[in-house]
């Protein structure tokens, strides 16, 4: 059996799975269940976990999982040499991948690996989460070996947050920054997030050096959410030096966006407008999709402050569409959080406030916010 015959290719739009020229069409939930199990091969899941991860806000029964597994096994029986869905007694189900992969002949060419890494860096820098995920999903077919950093980072981009809590394959100091990020997204009380951030900042050796600068920039947003203006101002001044040293467009915009939010919250609309224009000029030179979505949201906040509700709504919707298209799940969640924080603070638009509260609940169910908010503090606060 050749290695090529063991590779499965998923086509979400068509709900089909292909292998060696053969294609199987699945029903939407069959496809979602199979893809989830395939991406988490080797790990057993209970029926309750599968209902939570695949069916989300729907209200099926345990029997629903059993029925879908039964149908999947029938449709996949011709591929049992490559993949099986096994019953784990007392637990639930586990997918097992079989067969050996062919060695990738391209890895012996250093320039190939260098070009792949540059491509990943470009997608990352341009905020093209869809491209990152597509490349990762088809890496076997393309003969690509992911750099270890991107193998982990892509999990974060696509919203596989529970993996960071549960995995033992990643050293704790390497996943700590991700855990802080995830907690600050899913925890609605920013004071709880700030407490964890400050705990880690007081012990900088807990983080690898590459994450420390970003932590110093990200903490500004928590100072703003908790109304600690003096600390936010001091931290923004500190962050300006960090950003100047890094020379990164994305970090420059990250800091500027916190400055825009600060200006909006402090009723400095002229200052906010100037910062928005500077950001637009930068993005006209380097059109980073993810950053464009975030800026468009902030422009919507600016229009709310100017009491131009219709234009504000239009910009908020446009910004969210750009973030969804980027397929950076963390930025989608941060975007919804920003809209809710702003509308909760000023209370200008009850209809949009309800709309985004509903969206938040949908995201909370899909990405298991309650589980993450319970689990992460215990991990972060354990002795170093």
Automatic annotation (TrEMBL):
Coiled coil: none annotated. One of its GO terms (biological process) is regulation of DNA-templated transcription. Residues 1-97 bind DNA. GO terms for molecular function: phosphorelay response regulator activity; transcription cis-regulatory region binding. Keywords: DNA-binding, Phosphoprotein, Transcription, Transcription regulation, Two-component regulatory system. One of its GO terms (cellular component) is cytosol. The keyword Calcium does not apply. PROSITE patterns: OMPR_PHOB (PS51755). It holds the Pfam family Trans_reg_C. It comes from the Bacteria. Residues 1-97 form the OmpR/PhoB-type domain. PANTHER family: PHOSPHATE REGULON TRANSCRIPTIONAL REGULATORY PROTEIN PHOB, REGULATOR OF RPOS. This is Winged helix-turn-helix domain-containing protein. It comes from Brevibacillus thermoruber.
